[in-house]
What we know:
By secondary structure, this protein is of the alpha/beta class. The chain has helices at about 10-20, 75-80, 95-100; strands at about 60-65, 90-95, 110-115, 120-125, 135, 155-160.
Amino acid sequence: MGFALKYVNPKEIFRELAKKIPLWAGLAPKLSSPCPTIKPAVSGKFVPFEVDISLPGRRPYTLIIGKSLQHSGSFTTHHPGGTMSVTGEARLTVNPEDAQSLGLAPGEVVKVISSQGEISAPVDLSAAVPAGVVFLPEHFAAPAANDLTLNSNLVRVTIQKG
């Protein structure tokens, strides 16, 4: 890689990383947490960004496609054991107000339609998503959230019963 790597053992590599990465300050091999007397040197100022989840388009809902708890990739959603027993399928998360206006109940299967495609998914209700926004986890073979979009995690969709 073009670097003169003159390390005698893995401990030396770890020590150099601990010097370069503020979050690792005070860590040492076989320690599970940093030394409380060493404080990381973090500089800069946090600047929040504007969160705008609206997209142009005629379809009434903004679909966010993203990660879900317990799943980190396609293996965890295709292997019959492990995390599939915790979260066995992808579900479309809908705000309860939107579900009420659409006449949807938890577990009911809906069609999610974008300009790129159409999938069917069971519904979960959660006030954690704002009205007008729905969420579908990625990585599941079915329903395949990526069938609804071209290289984006946001897309305008229509939701229809069954």
